[in-house]
Amino acid sequence: MSQTIRLEIEIPGELKLLRLPIGVDRRLHELLDKQDSGQKLTDDERREAEGLAELNDLLSLLRLRSERLSRAA
Description:
Blueprint lengths: L21 H15 L6 H30 L1
Helix pairs in contact: 1-2
């Protein structure tokens, strides 16, 4: 069963700030590159990569939605 949650979030003036920090983004890419090269990730690495990817997706969604709202206003 799905739920709808309404959040009010203060968006930074520069939407580009809604991204993973450089070091975190670099770690995500290291894990993905390791996996893409055929190396098996440990369970901890896999969970880390999944969590970082989910966080990146959330930030991207927030950035896109806030850009859309800014254009509509």
